[in-house]
Design goal:
The protein is an alpha+beta fold. Among the domains are: about 5-55; about 70-275 and about 470-545, Aminopeptidase (3-Layer(aba) Sandwich). The chain has 15 helices and 21 strands. The strands form 6 sheets. Strands 5, 6, 7, 10, 11, 12, 19 and 20 form an 8-stranded mixed β-sheet that branches. The protein starts with 9 loop residues before the first strand and ends in a 32-residue tail after the last helix. The relative contact order is 0.16.
Length: about 575
């Protein structure tokens, strides 16, 4: 019996108890109640921390505004939009399809060259532009600036397109190349509209405008137009990079930054975002083709084995698709994608994105709900080809499947194959890797990175309601052939993409709106003008050390640390600049 009977709300046979079910001493009650209160206060503290973080969250990216002369801005009229749209349409009508390494549309590529010469006379006749045909079908343009430039930049795009696929699924001829009215808008319709002839024509049209009436950019730069990006770029971009290397070495130059196709301006795709997201790819995934192979006995189908080669292989594929590669949200630049977007998110998502230190698992689950967003955070597995069987009444002795892996920037081939073996769990399935392209290094995207600021300024000058976010490009580009030129490699084009457009990429009914294509031209024009302004601002400073900081600073240098300085340790290879307010 306890002495502190009055402290108990219940009594049992004259003994003080705490709840009518057990016996408790004062010490036991103190420990129990203290633990409950500690848990309660901890939860309240966490909730307060979450709410305070959400209330105080600010834009993580700080724009250092670049303000080129307003007289250089493009004045866009409806007639000009139509003219530009017609030029893109003409390029689309030329069927520059890459079917395979031994099946390219070579005559069509030469025809496209002639279209470009006709549509952009200033570019192809200017004394300030040297046009070189590389390996017969690709183009390298060297644009000479009015000021000696030790650190020119490089704009990339590609001339070829993927096959249209099933023509019956298209609303119109995929090579129509016309402006059509669909719904409430006008669109340039056809294969290549967003991959990637809009970049080709957008870059050339922007340069055409700069060169009009004898104009000349201040800063020198290069344009590389490969002819076989869709099948790896080994005959196009690879040869351009070799020609470019020879040029810059002869001129004692170093490439400052590279801009190629990649992510887009997106709306209604990333969770919690009502405004457009200017999603700039600072890295792309690696890739690997993996062959799965099962061998068995070939014999008559009248006495089949308990498990056929096709059955074993099918189960292996089921296991691969069931056991996805692990999510790496906290390891890669996608962590900063969402931390950068926290301030512009709707309130619930703002609460989550501003507290990734605690809620990254929840964000990962949200991303996993959609294949488009899930691909951002993990290595993906796509079974693309299966081969088995020689006759309907013969058990095949071999079954094969091809798996296309897009490898997360923080992973590698050994890690991918180890996971595949574990997921399949059957030694009868042989695994062979081929065509491995490792993930490249992550480019800098901090506030102090001048190339990133140039691109961000250019995009926001065209899409003023947008929000900048760095991220990972899930596909692969020609940049793989230029990795040794600079650590500042970005993958972005200003095509405006909504949730209704994601399937058009390499899919059916590819198109870009006339208004959006005008924005594409504007963007590339601003990249040229902003790059000029950077050089003008830097050259006007008396401190020569500032000039030393920017000239030749695109050379790769091994450093570690996240691009933003706040996210996870991304093992970035980068070289940041000293950037002053303009």
């Amino acid at each position: 019996m306890y002495d502190d009977e009055k402290m108990s709300p219940f009594r049992y046979k004259g003994v003080s108890v705490c709840c009518g079910l057990c016996y408790c001493s004062r010490k036991t009650r103190f420990i129990f109640c203290g633990s409950i209160w500690l848990i309660f206060l901890t939860i309240i503290g966490l909730l307060l921390a979450l709410l305070i973080n959400a209330a105080l969250v600010e834009e993580k990216f700080h724009l250092r505004e670049i303000s080129p002369d307003q007289s250089t801005r493009l004045e866009i009229t409806p007639d000009l939009k139509k003219t530009w749209g017609d030029k893109l349409g003409k390029s689309i009508s030329v069927q520059t399809i890459s079917y395979g390494s031994d099946n390219k549309s070579l005559d069509a590529l030469l025809e496209l060259h002639e279209v470009l010469k006709t549509e952009f006379p200033e570019v192809f006749t200017s004394q300030f532009v040297e046009v070189t045909i590389v390996n017969e079908y690709s183009l390298l343009l060297e644009v000479q600036g009015s000021t000696f430039t030790e650190n020119p930049y490089l704009l990339l795009a590609h001339l070829d397109v993927v096959p249209p696929g099933n023509l019956s699924l298209w609303d119109m001829d995929p090579f129509l190349g016309k402006i059509v009215t669909q719904g409430d808008g006008d669109y340039i319709y056809g294969r290549g509209a967003i991959d990637d002839k809009h970049s080709v024509i957008g870059i050339l049209q922007a340069l055409e405008h700069v060169l009009q009436d004898g104009g000349q950019p201040l800063r020198s730069f290069y344009i590389g137009l490969g002819h076989d990006e869709e099948i790896g770029g080994d005959d196009g971009a690879k040869f351009i990079s070799e020609e470019l290397l020879q040029r810059v070495e002869e001129k004692n130059q170093s490439i400052d930054f590279i801009l190629d196709e990649g992510m887009f301006v997106m709306q209604g795709i990333l969770p919690g975002q009502e405004d457009p997201v200017i999603y700039i790819g600072v890295v792309e995934k690696g890739s690997a083709m993996v062959t799965l192979e099962v061998d068995g006995d070939q014999h008559h189908s009248s006495f089949p084995p308990k498990e056929s080669t096709i059955g074993i292989l099918s189960q292996a594929i089921v296991n691969l698709e069931k056991h996805r590669h692990p999510a790496k949200l906290t390891d890669g630049p996608e962590y900063d994608t969402f931390s950068y977007l926290a301030a512009s998110s709707t309130y619930l998502y703002k609460l989550v994105f501003s507290n990734l230190w605690l809620l990254s698992g929840l964000v990962s689950s949200i991303l996993s709900s959609s294949s488009e967003t899930d691909a951002v955070q993990r290595t993906t597995t796509a079974v693309t080809i299966m081969n088995a069987g020689i006759k309907e009444n013969v058990m095949p002795s071999r079954a094969e499947a091809t798996v296309n892996h897009r490898i997360h920037p923080t992973s590698n081939l050994d890690e991918v194959l180890e996971h595949d073996r574990w997921a399949i769990g059957d030694d009868r399935v042989k695994i062979y890797a081929r065509d491995y392209v490792p993930p490249p290094r992550i480019s800098p995207y901090s506030d102090d990175s001048i190339p990133f600021q140039i691109l961000a300024n250019s995009a926001l000058q065209v899409f003023p309601t947008g929000h900048i976010a760095p991220g990972t490009l899930m596909a692969n580009t020609d940049t793989r052939h230029y990795l040794d030129f600079t650590s500042n490699i970005y993958r972005f084009s200003p095509a405006f993409i909504t949730s209704n457009d994601t399937t058009r990429f390499h899919g059916i009914n590819e198109r870009i709106s006339v208004n959006n294509f005008a924005q594409v031209v504007q963007f590339y024009h601003q990249v040229i003008r902003n790059s000029d302004q950077i050089m003008l601002d830097m050259s006007s400073k008396s401190d020569s050390s500032v000039m030393d900081e920017i000239e030749g600073s695109g050379e790769p240098e091994e450093l570690e640390g996240s691009g933003s300085g706040d996210g996870p340790n991304l093992k970035t290879t980068s070289h940041d600049y000293e950037l002053t307010e303009f």
